[in-house]
Amino acid sequence: GPKVLQIPSHQIIDMGQMVTLNCDPVSNHLYFYWYKQILGQQMEFLVNFYNGKVMEKSKLFKDQFSVERPDGSYFTLKIQPTALEDSAVYFCASSLQGWEQYFGPGTRLTVL
Amino acid sequence: DAKTTQPDSMESTEGETVHLPCSHATISGNEYIYWYRQVPLQGPEYVTHGLQQNTTNSMAFLAIASDRKSSTLILPHVSLRDAAVYHCILRVGAGNTGKLIFGLGTTLQVQP
């Protein structure tokens, strides 16, 4: 099936630093999503993005978070500054028309 | 957001047909029933979805009760690769934003 790629697979950073998580969505997809999953817990929605804009965000999408798709390629999640509680696996998903979402393999973020 | 109820876990044996139940007593008329599955260290994988009619694809058969208050995901002839956490999700959100609200799902174990 369609493949979503995420780069890097694992990122370790010090608290307070900035981090950018990259998502390479399915090429013709129009809707983009970020989810967060802490180990052993359920996946939680962060934000979705369409036509260059944030459509909806959850309360987990703090002011330190931002998303963009600057050149029509990578869909990025930036956290600046990072906090210890941001440690989690972040999953990107994309969708053609907002129906089936295709997920990437996740980026494991460790904040020290 | 409308909620679903699933058993925590189920066990099966290779070659069996597995029935995964989901209860959604407060489902709204315009909410679709989605099923995703997730194996450790990977992103969720879309399985199927439906509104009112039963649906079938190469992965599974989705049986939806006539009152839509419950559904059953039927996996024919399971293999070890079908061992995963199966999530029954009601699609919420305005328009086509379609954020997914995950619960803890049903952990399906498949024995050789």
Compose a concise summary of this entry.
The complex is a heterodimer of chains A (112) and B (112). Chain A has 112 residues and is mainly beta.
3D architecture notes:
With about 110 residues, chain A is an all-beta fold. Chain A has strands at about 5, 10-15, 20-25, 30-35, 45-50, 55, 65-70, 75-80, 90-95, 100-105, 105-110. In chain A, the strands form 2 sheets. In chain A, strands 2, 4, 5, 6, 9, 10 and 11 form a 7-stranded mixed beta sheet that branches. In chain A, strands 1-3-8-7 form a 4-stranded antiparallel beta sheet, with no helix packed on it. In chain A, a hairpin with a 6-residue loop joins strand 9 and strand 10 (about 100-105). The radius of gyration of chain A is 13 Å and the shape is globular. The mean pLDDT of chain A is about 95. With about 110 residues, chain B is mainly beta. In chain B, about 0% of the residues lie in helices and about 45% in strands. Chain B is built from no helices and 9 strands. A 5-stranded mixed beta sheet of chain B has the order 1-9-8-3-4, with no helix packed on it. A 4-stranded antiparallel beta sheet of chain B has the order 2-7-6-5, with no helix packed on it. Chain B starts with 8 loop residues before the first strand and ends with a strand. The interface of A and B includes residues 45 and 105 of A.
